[in-house]
Amino acid sequence: MKILISLSFFIVIFSNAVFSQKLVSATYKGARTKQQVSSLFSLPLIKYGAKYYKILYTSPDAKGNMDTLSGLLVLPDDSRFEYPRLVYQHGTSDCKKCVPSFYGSSGGEEGQLGLLFAGLGFVSILPDYVGMGEGRGFQTYVHAATTVSASKDMLDACLEWTSQNNIFTNDQLFITGYSQGGYASMALHKYFEEFQGSTSVTAAAHLSGPYSLSGVMRNLILGDVPYFYPAYIPNTVLGFNEVYGNLYADLGEFFKSEYVPDILKYYNGTSTLTTLNTKLIQLLQANTGASVGGRMIRDDVKAEIIANPDHPANKILKENDLYDWAPQVPTRIFYCTADDQVPFLNSVIARDTMLANGAPLLSVTDVSPNSTHGQCVTPALTSTVLFFLGLQKITTGIADDFTNNNITIYPNPVLDILSIDGLNEKETVTIFNADGQIITQKVSNGSTISNMDTSQMTDGVYIVMIQASDGRTQTHKLVKIR
Q: 317 — phi, psi (to 5°)?
């Protein structure tokens, strides 16, 4: 059993960093203007247009052998400044090429989020993952070590390319992702803090991810509660077998025979995950009376997993849990209680365990209690944007950092009247709510604005954006109380 493969992957990461060139190529794929990006997201916070590139780079595959992986790099279109880097990890993909680097093609729609973050002033890096996009083999679904290696190696490859092409980044690094991407962002964040120190990450936001594989997700799979996303079960088993090779030699050793043909079609790339999910629901309902995913697992295998803590499946799930640690940098976990795909208890267990472990800057929020998994995306991403903008620094690259001035916003929290000191003449001050809507706006005539009325604003968190006459901006977080 190769339960120690995670350690070997981190050894591969370190050795590759020293002995190999990770960048293979960067291919320009297109651009959007600031106006086009703004219209895509209906968000007035957009400051830049975006240019996007398909990146190919070397990184280990499921067996630790070097492969060529792919991802999407999206840049703000104004080259005068140094920007923070941001890694966005995508959610579960319907097919091998339904990934960010195929943005502009059918299935690559999630790559559009790279345009959002670039438009906000981040150099945005969106890995496709091992076995996805241009990578060989099957994806290593929710496997922490290969998720980390694919993401870290793409970060290095992008840094190599940007430095060669006079595109400058500063030392800030933001990490986020949704669903499978929430798991992937948590894995990358954990890796950086544990192997490169907490100063290597500026902030992270993990959104609706399955962090408790051996607890919450295992209980869901082995229980008798109907679950209408049963395709996630073979997706996970197939991915883990790619890495560990010890769950089965033949699919029929793990799954009941009536489910194997459709699972094989998906594994071989002749069927999508959505098609597999629909077929599995139909088969489970016809064969067992309900869409209970664990019923597709052979009875003897399922009984052994339940009874034997040392079963390979249990050890693998536990090895890939991601909640038992303590992030030291500003960290947010956003979720929705009504999530019908990834149970919200994943986020609750992560919260409770991390706080017990002493995480000093962690906040965990139910951003929309009645929202399903699909509906939770927008409020989770909106909360992430506001969180990151409150910490973002954009510099000129010539020792003139717009965020390092004497601006003071007070009182904060504010009750009725807000004052701002340290402004330059003709700087524009805009207050946005959590939905990105403009609440109020003023242009400074001198160094102070002392009469911004906030009495009609509802309680909550807002973003104050200050824009200089040359277009540079900085953002601050404002809390409104009554």
A: -60, -45
**pLDDT at 42 exceeding the cut of 90:** no
Burial class (CB in 10 A: 0-12, 13-18, 19+), 286: exposed
DSSP-based three-state secondary structure for 22: coil
Which pLDDT does position 400 carry in this prediction?
A: 41
Q: 10 Å Cβ neighbour count for 287?
A: 13
Q: What is the mean pLDDT of the chain?
A: 92
Which amino acid belongs to residue 36? Answer: Q
Instruction: Give me the CATH code for the 408-480 domain, please.
Output: 2.60.40.1930
Q: How far is CA 88 from CA 11, 100, 232, 433, in A?
A: 24, 10, 21, 23
Q: Phi and psi dihedrals of 366, rounded to 5?
A: -85, 100
Class level of CATH domain 5-212+321-389: alpha beta
Q: How far apart are CA 372 and CA 445, in angstroms?
A: 47
Q: Report, as an integer, the average pLDDT of 286-296.
A: 98
Q: Taking 90 as the threshold, does the pLDDT of residue 115 lie above it?
A: yes
- Scored b (16 or more CB within 10 A) or e, 73-111 reads bbbbeeeebbbbbbbbbbbbbbbbbbbbbbbeeebbebb
> What pLDDT shows up at residue 402?
53
Please state, in angstroms and rounded to a whole number, the distance separating the CA atoms of residues 60 and 130: 8
Does residue 189 sit in helix, strand or coil?
Answer: helix
CA distance 243 to 19: 24
Both tokens of 381, joined, read 């991403």
The single-letter code of the amino acid at 103 is Y
Hey, what are 174's tokens? 């933001």
What does the pLDDT look like over 14-33, one tens digit per residue? 444 444 559 999 999 999 99
Cβ(174)–Cβ(123) below 8 Å: no
Which one is predicted more confidently, 307 or 462?
307
Q: What are phi and psi of 278, to 5 degrees?
A: -60, -45
**φ and ψ at residue 454, rounded to 5 degrees:** -115, 10
pLDDT at residue 4 greater than cutoff 70: no
Distance CA 242, CA 127 (A): 19
The residue with tokens 């064969």 is: 287
Q: How far apart are CA 224 and CA 19, in angstroms?
A: 50
Query: Do 408 and 421 meet the contact criterion of CB atoms below 8 Å apart?
Result: yes
pLDDT at 171 > cutoff 90: yes
d(CA 224, CA 293): 8
Lowest mean pLDDT among 16-25, 62-71, 377-386, 427-436: 16-25
pLDDT band, residue 105 (cuts 50/70/90):
very high
Confidence of residue 293 (pLDDT cuts 50, 70, 90): very high
CA dist 141 → 93, 284, 289, 336, 350 (Å): 10, 23, 28, 22, 20
Query: What's the number of CA atoms in the CB half-sphere (13 Å) around residue 362?
Result: 22
- The Cα 317–Cα 482 span in angstroms is 47
